[in-house]
């Protein structure tokens, strides 16, 4: 479901695996790269799709767990989508294959999602 040599995946991978103390790992699950803190839940996924009659695949997207207070504002932004399966748990996706992709924003989203999963010792 993804190309291991995808340059966009390489860029997301570089941002995700560079988080503090190198406390991130990549694994393949459900046919997609998932990024997590060892022994904890995932904080990002590369690629997704939406559910329902208007199902849309987003092969070049980063899916992150956003803070509950940020979710309504993010959903007002047409760049964001609710991913299948993870969406009901507070996750949102953002395509990274456009010419106007803001990689600083992607890095911030990954960092915020990482912080939701990180243990207190890493957050200090």
Automatic annotation (TrEMBL):
<protein>
    <submittedName>
        <fullName>MmcQ/YjbR family DNA-binding protein</fullName>
    </submittedName>
</protein>
<dbReference type="Pfam" id="PF04237">
    <property type="entry name" value="YjbR"/>
</dbReference>
<dbReference type="GO" id="GO:0003677">
    <property type="term" value="F:DNA binding"/>
</dbReference>
<keyword id="KW-0238">DNA-binding</keyword>
<dbReference type="InterPro" id="IPR038056">
    <property type="entry name" value="YjbR-like_sf"/>
</dbReference>
<dbReference type="InterPro" id="IPR058532">
    <property type="entry name" value="YjbR/MT2646/Rv2570-like"/>
</dbReference>
């Amino acid at each position: 479901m993804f190309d291991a040599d995808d340059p966009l995946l390489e860029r997301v991978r570089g941002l995700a695996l560079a988080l503090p103390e190198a406390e991130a790992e990549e694994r393949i699950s459900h046919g997609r790269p998932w990024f997590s803190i060892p022994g904890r839940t995932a904080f990002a996924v590369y690629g997704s799709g939406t559910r329902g009659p208007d199902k849309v695949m987003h092969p070049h997207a980063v899916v992150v767990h956003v803070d509950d207070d940020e979710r309504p504002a993010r959903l007002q932004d047409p760049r964001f989508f609710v991913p299948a399966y993870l969406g009901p748990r507070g996750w949102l996706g953002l395509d990274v294959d456009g010419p106007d992709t803001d990689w600083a924003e992607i890095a911030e989203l990954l960092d915020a999602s990482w912080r939701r999963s990180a243990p207190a010792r890493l957050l200090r």
